[in-house]
Design brief:
It is a single chain. This protein has 78 residues and is mainly beta. Strands 4-3-2-1-5 form a five-stranded antiparallel beta sheet, with no helix packed on it. The protein is globular and about 30 Å long. The chain starts with 7 loop residues before the first strand and ends in a 5-residue tail after the last strand.
């Protein structure tokens, strides 16, 4: 798939008690010339003190089909 602003993706939490878990996110805009993107990520209060409840913005996030922490990937179909 080709990334585009407004696309629904999943962000992999890089730290904290929920490290490695996925959270829904929206691609906002390309971030630099290296293929990274700015994302708006949605979290819950249960995600712990490392993540704000509600939503937050993160910049310079790379795509990883291997779903590595701190990256985004396309949702799994079905």
């Amino acid at each position: 798939m080709t990334a585009y602003p407004g696309a629904n993706v999943l962000y992999v939490l890089p730290i904290g008690q929920r490290h490695g878990e996925y959270r829904p996110a929206i691609l906002v805009r390309p971030s630099g010339s290296d293929g990274n993107w700015s994302l708006h990520v949605f979290c819950e209060p249960e995600d712990g003190p490392d993540w704000p409840s509600g939503s937050f913005h993160v910049d310079g996030v790379p795509h990883s089909p291997r779903k590595r922490p701190g990256t985004w990937h396309w949702p799994i179909p079905g």
